[in-house]
Amino acid sequence: MRLAKRSRARLPRGEGAGAWLAAGSVALSLLALLALLSLLAIRGLGHFWPASIALVALDDGRQLAGEQVREVPLPDGTGRERLYRIGNRDLDGTRWAWVPVSAIAAVSHPPELMVLERHRWGEAIGRLVAVESETGERLEGQAARAVLENRMTELASLRQARDTLRDEVVLPRVQALQEGGDVERELATANARLRELQAAMQAGHLTLETASGERWQVPLDQILRVRYPNAMSPLDKLVVWGEGVWRFLSEGPRAANTAGGVWPAIFGTVLMVMLMSILVTPFGVLAAIYLNEVAHQGRLTRLVRIAVRNLAGVPSIVYGVFGLGVFVYGIGGSLDEWFFDAALPSPTFGTGGLLWASLTLALLTLPVVIVATEEGLARIPDQQREGALALGATRLEMLTRVVLPMATPAMLTGVILAVARAAGEVAPLMLVGVAKLAPQVPVDADFPFLHLERKFMHLGYHIFDAAFHGGDVQAAMPLVYATALLLVLVILVLNLTAIFLRHHLSTRHGALSRR
């Protein structure tokens, strides 16, 4: 201990300051990362928490009901104002209201205030007045509330039956009919059943009264869920929060990507990254082997290395333009002329799709894999190669059985860096296959099961579209935060998978080399 203290005391003053500066930089980086993740988690996951609904009475006698979003100072600095999400956009054209704090006379939280989550127009907030059932019977009070709960359960079952019939019966028979199959009778029967389900869903409506006293009728088939936030216990709110997070992860988007879930975007992002990794890894590894193990180390090889490193810094949109011109219009257009002439002028491969997006991102990340793999090959001592050759191994056996296993961690490092960059790229995907809305994932039960020609959704593009192209950016921001957090977690899971695999292989080959 004394020796260690004396050795630290002998460190020059500059080295001690440098160590503290390095430690401070690491701590600052970790704090910035934690702050980013905390912001995304609080703003994103907090969106699914059923917040209380406030009934606000103003000095002029008006009333409004809504969820308090935030409170900020007035521009002139004379007071503060609050932002409330009041819903009911189909009544007055807006779902937000700024209220000066000085104009508020009273704030209460009545337990009878209800929130309706709808297919269109967002949320509706008010008091339940009456429910008209599918038989035409009008009910009020507690009876109306009980009938409404039962009707919501029935509507959920009808929607599930309708979606199953449409996806598993109607759509396959429409496709078979287009291909010349004799399924007209089956298709007519399925469509008749589909109309019956739709008619059963459209029966009934409820009467809602707003905080201002205005009443209007809401069709029951437009309502997805009903809740009373002010009457919920913390445990009830936690259950609703968990259900909201699950729906976000398992359902598709709706309302112009400002509501619903992101399951197609999750699936499309992971599938595209996996295809990109499968395409880029062999080409990157073979290129690195050639440059480091086969090619003559002369001026031309050095120029190739410089070119590869420069390609890693080319803007991603340039690769998107290249993929659009070469892959989509060039190769894809030729494939349509050779194999899909009957479908023209509707393109099959001559338009953006999963295959062309994966190839474009494989080309984008190819320099990263080449550089990382070549650096790993360069770190292997020449004695390993010479020892294998001295024992009678051929050059191919030396590469495949000695060099490549020892360089596997470096290869996986290149794949990790490629995955991290490709999963967050958006600009090239806008040109070669990503879509604003593609509820059907590129994998299904129809041959060839994986449809490389289909467009797909991507988490990064979903964030861009919801944040800048939506009709109500304020309403979309919580989903933007939640999707951004999800994208970070998806990249983290993909990277951790590769890191664990790299650690396993590194430990295994390290043990073999010690033997």
TrEMBL record:
Single GO BP term: phosphate ion transmembrane transport
Keywords from the named record: Cell membrane, Coiled coil, Membrane, Transmembrane, Transmembrane helix, Transport
Compartment(s): Cell inner membrane; Cell membrane
Alphabetical list of Pfam families matching this protein: BPD_transp_1
CDD domains tied to this protein: TM_PBP2
Residue ranges constituting the ABC transmembrane type-1 domain according to the UniProt record: 266-498
Membrane-protein topology: Multi-pass membrane protein
SUPFAM superfamilies: MetI-like
Coiled-coil regions listed in the entry: 148-200
GO terms under cellular component: plasma membrane
UniProt key word Cytoplasm: no
Family, as annotated: Belongs to the binding-protein-dependent transport system permease family. CysTW subfamily.
Protein name: Phosphate transport system permease protein PstA
